[in-house]
Amino acid sequence: MFWLSHHPPEEYDRCYRVGPLHVCARCLGVYPTLVVMLVALFAVRAPLEHPLDLPVVLCLTAPATLDWAFGRFRPHALSNLWRTFTGVLLGLALGRSLFIHLQRPFPTVLLAQFALVTGIVLPVILATYRGRPRG
What we know:
By secondary structure, this protein is mainly alpha-helical. It has helices spanning 25-43, 53-73, 80-103, 108-130; strands spanning 15-18, 21-24.
């Protein structure tokens, strides 16, 4: 079931098994945290701008992104607990940047977050794509 895990069977070690289902460890941290963060920020009427938004969002985004990148080269390294933890951090970061974006489209914090993720992910995708046999 793709909505619970986007991993193929050879990557099921990146998932928690719940009965017959596999749930992606990182996504289990990201999505519930993102929703809770977003609801909480709207509920408390959080300010749209804070001087720490940019560094905090980038620092919270980096661990999951770097862990994902490391996992492309060492797929069975680290643990699901670590993936879930970095997913929670990413969920917090995405919740904050999305909160701002929903009220003021394409804020600097969201664009910087996008640049950070793209700057890490794109070279990794290109490097791993080149290493795949074509057939």
